[in-house]
Amino acid sequence: MSTRVLLVDPSPAIYRVAAWELCSEDLWVRGVPTAQDALDLLEQWMADLLVIAVTLPDVPPRRLAEVACRRWTVRTAFMGYAMPQEEYRTRPRIPWIQKDKVTGTRLRALAHDLRPCAYSGDD
Asked: Which of 9, 21, 24, 122 is the most buried (most CB within 10 A)?
């Protein structure tokens, strides 16, 4: 069964190239530039993992993660070049992916090893 990953990054160079490079028989990667595009796509295409760039222009990344988790119980991770600020290391804890180290192996592992939703329960 294929793992579905949705990358949300304002840079077309990231979301298009990463999606193209990482797609394989067992990993299906799609990319969009905005939080609204991500929400629209999730309505039609259920992802196993939502990877959100911390540089989104339209919505705070944590807000997108919260909405996606509550609406679809999708697993989430944040992505960026630098180490996350305190805001991204507090509860609920969401994994961090360094943008230049995104690999198919890492995405598969996150999609299957994370609990379904970081915003459920008492987190």
From this structure: 9
With CA atoms as reference, report the closest residue to 91 among 119, 110, 51.
119
The amino acid sitting at 63 is R
Say how many domains are in the chain: 1
Q: 68-88, pLDDT tens digit by residue?
A: 988 998 888 888 877 656 655
Strand partners, 32: 8
Calculate the CA 29 to chain-centre distance: 11
pTM of this structure: 0.79
The residues near 64 (Cβ < 8 Å, ≥ 6 apart) are 8, 35, 38, 39, 50, 52, 56
Domain, as residue range, for 31: 3-113
Token duo for residue 2: 């294929």
Order the strands of the 49-53 sheet from edge to edge: 27-32, 3-8, 49-53, 75-80, 96-98
Asked if residue 49 belongs to a domain, the reply is: yes
**How far is residue 24's CA from residue 4's CA, in Å, rounded to a whole number?**
11
Provide the CA 16 distance to its chain's centre, in angstroms: 14
